[in-house]
Amino acid sequence: MDYTIFFDQIKDLFPTIEINNSSDLTESEFKIKYGYPEVPVLLKSRFNDLYKSINFRELDEKFHSKEWNFDSTTGKAETKMSLEDYFLKETTEYYLKTNIRDLDFTIDYPNLFKCWYKSYPTEKGKKELVWLYYGNKNTFTNIHTDIWKFNSWLLLLKGKKLWFIYPKAYNSIIKENKEKYGIDMIDTLMNGSIKPFITVQNPGEMMYVPSDTFHFVINLEASLAYTGNFMNETNYENVKQYFAKSDNSNNKKFINSIIATGMTQLKIKNL
């Protein structure tokens, strides 16, 4: 399916994800408007400076300097190819996911999304939660919520993405049959009583998705994204509940320690 054509047919049939055009939205304003109330939002101008600071020529050189291991969208084994071959094949069966350390390239972390997990001082190995994604036109990420009930952010560097984000009020219904509300059923969503919010994201724009929020994303063009997950005072209760159900007591202690440290730092900051 060509999802660009499909989007033109459905764009007026779904509600729209909230859009914020402010270029100087503060951290405090963000948390009050979107963080604490868990409201998805497309920030169209807030990260212009971060986007413009990226050396895209160097970034392209890094990506084209070697072959990469591409992950399968259909459960097949990963395959190795150059980025040029990937584009030429126009395949939708694979996508590239890499952390910036592997690329040996630097992009500043978005200052609006302070992460207690990322800043927690420990010698224990921590999972990498910041990545770069490359996907050809018509590749997609199917319906899901993000890891550990963390919030997520995505700054689009190249291309165009179509987002579908469900209100959290529908979570209990969606969890009963998640696939019913994903991309495989996209033709029937417009006629259903449970509809996602949608919007198109362009380069330089930042999407924020709150903790435990079902969503899926389609690349309307070959797209490169800078994306990550985070926890802080806006979602730590969700994270804590997630790990409370874990059988691993070490994980529970680790997360509780991160939360305690983050809360302490927050109190000191606000004194």
From TrEMBL:
Coiled-coil spans in chain: none
PANTHER family for the chain: ARGININE DEMETHYLASE AND LYSYL-HYDROXYLASE JMJD (PTHR12480)
Record organism: Chryseobacterium antibioticum
Pfam families recorded: JmjC
PROSITE patterns: JMJC (PS51184)
Name of protein: JmjC domain-containing protein
Residue span, JmjC domain: 77-247
